[in-house]
Amino acid sequence: MRNKPIANVNADLLKERKNCSFDIEELTNLIDGGKNQTARRREIENMLLKNMPFDIIPEECLSAKEKYENAVRKSVALNKIGVELVSQVTKAKELSDLTLTLRRVSDAYFREVTPFLLHLGMFIPTILGQCSDEQVAHWLPLAMQLKIIGTYAQTELGHGTFIRGLETTATYDERTEEFVLNSPTLSSSKWWAGGLGKTANHCIVVAQLYTKGECYGTHPFIVQIRDMDTHMPLKGLKVGEIGPRLGFQTADNGFLVFDNFRIPRDSLMMKHAKVLKDGTYVKIARHSKLTYGTMIFVRVLLVSEMAFNLSKAVTIAVRYSAVRRQSELKPNEPEPQVLDYLTQQHKLFISISTVYAFQFTSNWLMKTYHTVQANMKHGNTDALPELHALSSCLKAICTSDCSAAIEQCRFACGGHGYMISSNLPSLYAFTTATRTYEGDYTVLLLQTARFLVKTWEQVELGNAVTPMVAYLARHQNREAWDESPEGIIRAFEAIAAGVYQTESVRSVSFGQSDAIKDVMKQLSDLYLLYWSLERTGDLLTTLKSTLGSYDGRVYERLMEEALKSPLNQEPVNESFHNEPEPQVMDFVSQQHKLFIGIASYYSYSMTALWLWDILTKVTSELGVGKTDRLPESHGRAVFMSVFNSEMEKSVSSLSAPLQAVLRQLVELYLYYWTLEKRGDLLLVLQSTLGSYDGRVYERLMEEALKNPPNKEPVNESFHKYLKPFIQGKL
Ligand SMILES: CCCCCCCC/C=C\CCCCCCCCCC(=O)SCCNC(=O)CCNC(=O)[C@H](O)C(C)(C)COP(=O)(O)OP(=O)(O)OC[C@H]1O[C@@H](n2cnc3c(N)ncnc32)[C@H](O)[C@@H]1OP(=O)(O)O
Ligand SMILES: Cc1cc2nc3c(=O)[nH]c(=O)nc-3n(C[C@H](O)[C@H](O)[C@H](O)COP(=O)(O)OP(=O)(O)OC[C@H]3O[C@@H](n4cnc5c(N)ncnc54)[C@H](O)[C@@H]3O)c2cc1C
User: Fold this and answer.
1) Residue of 305, 438, 493, 503 marked active site
2) What domains are defined for the chain?
3) Helices marked H in 540-655 — which ranges?
4) Rounded CA separation 402/351 (Å)
5) pTM score of the predicted model
6) Which one of 89, 167, 294, 364 has the fewest CB atoms closer than 10 angstroms to its CB?
7) Which one of the ligands is nearest to 217 CA?
8) Active site residue 438
């Protein structure tokens, strides 16, 4: 399909393509994983092109409800083809190749994401990773053939990061051999699960397991939540859509609240732990964190997801930069393509290199994941901590870098990059969420830091460590690395860079032509050089700090430095004899620090009262609490001039002494009431999270309940598309 020449191609793009130093098909094969995979991908693309319904009206022009219904319509058509293709597959490797190809190709049909994303990305993997063999035999075919639609509800209003703090309870009732699910508090409401709001009829629920009066910690349960025929929520639970969000608009992220909701005993996913009929708890897992397995899997998947999303963004930006011409550099000559500007290349090329860094690392990480899984099947969990640390840090870095790089791509496309139709805003909205979900950036980096510190302790004791962290032992020389946070981060970056370089060299070392090798080498060098320049500070071995020295001799060093001061070279300074010591208040620099703060404060307050609408706009974007830190001088200038002129207008016709007193009174009044009523001022934040009274969860739930999709218990797309599809009548 893509090989055919396309008519009316922009001349600049054609010229750029002609300049390519290597065979594009060869690189395509490398990216796909081989010639056969490229051919298979194209076959699937063609099949979808023939059978998939396209949007009649652009997705972004639809209402929220229409967007969701349109996404269901397309997902059902896509899944019909997917299920058919999956049924023809016999080998596990073919299945995983096919799933990934379908995932990639299907992206072309959604500006946002499919409501089935969690079904594929977490529901099926959790069945595979958390169910006993008998449970897999029951649930997997249903899920693979989409006879049931599932999601993964772990996060609650009150807790996402701290899983051990989840509040939903599953209490075993041995009389009926059932678990009773309850949401004891508002903050225990399940929140966020994709597809839960309207689409899913099953859900994996992570809850605190109680039996015989004991709590055994969080466990996953597979729970039916909607009637299979009517799709109505089952009695004993409240389920709905959480409301508009930055991206993921068609993923119907939902909430779920249980009120004595009963589920059979075997709803507990029993690969790692069981509850016997009489309520006895039996632990099977050799490692306490195996119930967190799906998260590791998705973190691994996300590295390749980021490579893919960034590859789309940078392809858009590079193509557009070849087409876009701007600024007359030489009179009467054509304006240059923006791609020719070095500054533009700086924005774009690092993204290209990052795509390959992520993709090579992702291939390697997935292989590592499968090796560790295979070992764990035989009871060996030794490599799990390292896999957790590795997947955590790579997930954190790649999601963060990816959304930042996509922003650069958007900047590189100027104003047009801000159009939804450019797809860059949607790519950004999708990827910036990945920095938070499946483990927040900071939290995951801290997990890795914890592992590195523990490894370091082993190195100190002279114990053997795994090859991936063996460099810690090599760098025991304090000049090269230290145990400060910077040192740990630097070490972690060394891992990522090392993998990229070795993997990219390995991947292109056979088969591939010299031209491809050259380009890959250049990209690899670019990535390494770019980051060593970006992180020059971290790479410097001397911290140049009295406080941060390795030996901790803080006070000695502070004293040594103090003694070097020129002022200490004479016992009595001559100013003792000649001039009185000034009050610090008299120093102009001190006045500058203090008075500008006071003046700014009044300016904001005045502007708040007299120009309420401007404040509302500015603060709703920046937050009242941040106005005193407004970075833009423009913003400051507006506040200052409004303050001055409005004040002058009010008092200018009065006598001078009265003006002075009134000004003081106004200042006092404003000062006093701004502090007293800061809660009211905060109302302009228009935020469920930033309300003065801190009733965050109540407000989130109130807003969710106002959400139009929750006005009807079952969306009509269920009757039109989902039900006929599930029942095989479509
Ligand atoms: C055929 C199928 C094919 C599928 C194809 C799919 C195609 C689809 C493509 C793409 C899919 C991607 C899209 C998916 C969309 C997902 C949408 C979002 C979903 C979600 O967000 S779900 C919710 C995710 N939630 C989180 O990630 C929560 C983050 N929090 C945690 O992970 C943990 O709570 C914590 C790690 C921060 C802390 O846990 P805690 O129990 O308190 O542990 P600690 O005290 O800190 O540490 C104790 C000890 O445990 C070790 N440890 C922690 N976690 C793990 C782990 N996961 N594995 C192993 N070990 C772990 C930790 O290191 C400590 O060890 P130590 O004591 O130091 O030795
Ligand atoms: C688009 C999207 C889709 C999602 N889909 C799902 C889903 O399908 N199923 C599901 O179960 N969940 C889902 N989630 C929830 C997601 O997994 C959580 O939001 C995520 O794990 C972060 O947890 P949190 O919201 O509790 O953040 P918090 O932990 O409250 O984070 C707030 C801040 O506190 C900091 N912080 C928290 N703990 C620490 C710590 N120990 N040390 C230092 N700093 C800390 C964080 O770094 C962050 O800056 C989704 C979220 C989003 C945005």
Assistant:
1) 438
2) 293-562 (1.20.140.10), 599-685 (no CATH)
3) 554-564, 575-578, 588-610, 612-622, 633-651
4) 8
5) 0.79
6) 89
7) 1
8) yes
